Amino acid sequence: MLLSMTGFGEARTQTDDLAAAVEVRAVNNRHLKVTVRGTEPYPMFEADLEKVVRRHVRRGTVTVHVRVDRRPGHADLTLNADALAAYLRQVRAACDAAGTPEYAAPLLAGVLALPGVAPEARHGGSPPDGEWPVVERTLAGALAHLDEMRREEGRAMAAELLALHDTVAAELAAVRVLLPAVTADYRDRILDRVRQAVADAGVAVHPDHLIREVALFADRTDVAEEVTRLSAHLGQFADLVRKGDEAGRKLEFVVQEMGREANTLGSKAGDVAVSRHVFEIKAALERVRELVQNVE
Description:
By secondary structure, this protein is α+β, with helices and mostly antiparallel strands. The protein has 3 domains: 94 residues, 2-Layer Sandwich (Ribosomal Protein S5, domain 2), CATH 3.30.230; 35 residues, no CATH class; 140 residues. Helices cover 60% and strands 12% of the residues. The chain is elongated and about 125 Å long.
């Protein structure tokens, strides 16, 4: 099954001591790139979180946002007594200086919220004991939801890619039908021109010259190899889409080869009708190329 490189997943876990929430967003990229944001210290643990991401994602730019709300423990309940005393003195002094000492009490009610009085606990070194397994489990849940979205988009892309495959195959079949008539039509046009020239100028043209001219044209416009190779690439393309497992890079290569054969076919085609079919082939391949860029 094909997997899209874009998607979104989230998960939450609640325990007695903390609430963990993880959001995962993925967009297309030729390689895997993981970025971690959120509650400390997890942005510094990007390598550990990337190991979890790699179990689910092989290509793409993945942004992981981790939020952890912890219940404060006794060790976290700290008060900066010096800062508190300094704020109290300054508030009272300012109110006395302004002649409004009655305002001191209401202002002092919010002093604990002032910077530095009751600083939040920081975990700069490592997550608190028992927290990492909860975050890892929550991340795995978010990645599972991401996979669901990627699989759903992958099914839709596979259906469209196979429909475009059928379009290219139908146009290529039409080219096969036209090719024998292209050389014959050219031969007939050459003969008509020669007959007209003979009639107008009274000159004679050796039949070998006509045969040589037609043979040169047939050689210049022979696209049998291009048609055969494009047909083979189409079969390989369909197999990769149906198989789907890590098909993105292989599909990119096959589509590149199909585009090369289509360009050669268009440049060598000596007939307007053939050129019209080649145009439709190239238009379908361009849409295929856009879709394949989003396949993992």
